[in-house]
Write a structure and sequence with these properties.
Elements lengths: L22 H8 L10 E4 L6 E7 L5 E7 L6 E6 H6 L9 E2 L9 H11 L2 H11 L9
Antiparallel strand pairs: 1-2, 1-5, 2-3, 3-4
Helix pairs in contact: 3-4
């Protein structure tokens, strides 16, 4: 049985940014450059600005692609380095985290349009939950 890449793993605290169970979905999306995939994971700064919706991980194992938002009112599509993201040190010894309850729900193009209109990924999440509510058994 293939694990659902959107399901939280048992005892998953979100500190492993890309667990092994999510890598196949990210690689498959990277192999389809003309696609419009649903984001596989959400990374965020637990102490302030910074949210990333990631759809792809390139074969180099470092370059990710997705919607990046540093809370400056202009979310952008682009690439980000996993190595750089994992090296970020935040106040109190915290690091960037993965939202273990995140559900992509809609294609990246929809996220991008909503985030640009609302000014942030965080604001877009409320709208996405309304237009694509969770199915039975999915977290809100």
């Amino acid at each position: 049985m293939t694990p659902n890449p959107q399901e939280a793993l048992p005892h998953d605290d979100g500190l492993v940014l890309i667990p092994d169970a999510l890598r196949p979905a990210l690689a498959a999306n990277a192999a389809r450059p003309d696609g419009d995939p649903v984001p596989v994971l959400k990374l965020f700064n637990p102490t302030g600005p910074g949210t990333w919706l990631i759809t792809e991980l390139n074969p180099d194992g470092d370059t990710m692609f997705g919607l990046c938002d540093l809370d400056m009112g202009c979310a952008e599509l682009g690439s980000v380095s996993l190595r750089e993201i994992t090296s970020v040190t935040l106040p109190f010894g915290l690091t960037l985290e993965r939202d273990v309850c995140f559900k992509g729900r809609v294609p990246l193009s929809t996220w991008t349009e909503i985030a640009r209109r609302t000014g942030s990924i965080r604001e877009a999440e409320a709208i996405v939950r309304l237009v694509a509510p969770a199915r039975d058994g999915d977290p809100a």
